[in-house]
Amino acid sequence: MEYIVHKSNSRGSADYVWLKTNYSFSFAEYINPDRMGFGALRVLNDDMIAGGKGFGAHPHSNMEIITVTLSGGLEHKDNMGNIAVSKSGDVQVMSAGSGVFHSEFNAHPYTDLTLLQIWVIPNKMNVMPRYEHKYFDIQNSMNTFYQIIKPIDSDGEGIGIYQEAWFQRAILEKDKRLKYNLKNSNNGIYLFVISGQIIIGDNIELQSRDAVGIGNIEGAVSLLAEENVDILLMEIPIL
Fold this sequence. Notes:
Blueprint: E1 2-6, E2 12-15, E3 19-23, E4 41-49, E5 54-60, E6 64-71, E7 73-78, E8 83-87, E9 90-95, E10 100-106, E11 113-120, E12 130-135, E13 146-151, E14 159-161, E15 166-172, E16 177-180, E17 187-195, E18 197-200, E19 204-207, E20 211-215, E21 221-225, E22 229-237
Parallel strand pairs: 13-14
Antiparallel strand pairs: 1-20, 2-3, 3-4, 4-11, 5-10, 6-9, 6-11, 7-8, 7-10, 9-12, 13-15, 15-22, 16-21, 17-20, 17-22, 18-19, 18-21
């Protein structure tokens, strides 16, 4: 297996006062030729948005945009008529397809909002735009994988996207182990630590907000929690 470790302090960052963000991959003013994505995973932004602030209406096209709300409330509005507030444990997916306008604001006037904004390059272009929002009880992911994203029209738990990708959330207690087997042998894995500390494989140690990309995977990928840990595991096509 091949490992690419991205420590939390190696990410790009920006402070717009109302938005404090860290970029795992090149985005906006942060340009790093060595960080242009991981396969079909193009964006992973770790955002904190101040109370009442957010992104005004703006366009997207031909991108699968996934938001994992960690704390607070995110108000989404789009020109398809969707209005929703995502809270902790919620996941929303917007297939931008042929084009969509949307806005994203902190739904609470005084409380910070934290979220992961993820963009995946789709395997089908110019589809009819769509939006889906679902709550996942993250306690159900205690010491096991809880699938939150899957390929559209496939079986199993999770919200569908236009890509051969599967996302798993897992909360492991100290000293608990898990193994993950690829659903598509041509894929790789990008694993992001939301909080805690974990060992991947034999000796890849990751702490809060660290990540690792894993390619040329043969057999299962092993995980060992060194302390209570919350992770997001993304199985992604290697383009």
